[in-house]
Amino acid sequence: MNRLLILIGLVLVAAGLLWPYLTRLGLGRLPGDIAIQGEQGGFYFPIVTCILVSLVLTLIFWLAGKL
Prior knowledge:
Number of strands: 2
Strand order of the largest sheet: 1-2
Number of helices: 2
């Protein structure tokens, strides 16, 4: 459990440091993300972005489990 918490902390620190570069990747505006604009407002659900982030995190945790 200690290694998992340390890994999560390191991932969060890395994401925080790399945030200016990560925003340039276009995450959140991928094809397949749902965006509906109406007169009274809008709705946005980044489904493809969520799937992609889930796959990457699954890979990271799977690799961490192998250590």
